[in-house]
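Reopening this ticket.

The earlier resolution said the output was attached, but the attachment link was broken on my side. Pasting everything inline this time so it's all in one place.
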Amino acid sequence: MHGNAPVIVVDLQTGMFDGRVAPPLHDAEGLVARVRKILSWARRSGHGVAFVQQNSPPGDQLAPGAAGWPIWPALGQGADEPTFGKTVENAFTSEELRGWVTALGTDEVIVIGAATNHCVTSTVEGALAEGLKVTVVSDAHSTGSRPGAPGIIAAHNAAFAAAGARLVTTDELTATGT
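Inline output:
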């Protein structure tokens, strides 16, 4: 079902949660709780975990060195969990990330993170274009906090499924042994 598919955590950086430059992600506290549950499951069941970090231009909240750039501490990134930087929306443009997934001997990834309608979508599309099987955790990605956020998330979940990704909820994923 998931084999040894690693969890790819897209752009869950401080600036997406702290509210200093922009409002936190939609359902930020719930998202953190679900991501922590997924990460705990992944670590317990032997799935790799990698974090993807947006490296935006100077002056942006996600620019290297900016207050918003670090991975959000509440997620509890493990010391042995790599971080792959990117400057575009699709994390799979990173040769290092592709190599890490290949080294795990898997052809499947599990994608969670932000923002649904930008980097998560591009990363899912990029993984599919690489020939990977993709599982998207339907309640573990989010977008900017605004009234339309639930609709954006739902529409993208439908598009992910239409593109060939498998959708599961956090509870469905973490209830499985592998």
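Reporter confirms the inline version is readable. The chain has one domain: 7-175. The first strand starts at residue 7 and ends at 10.
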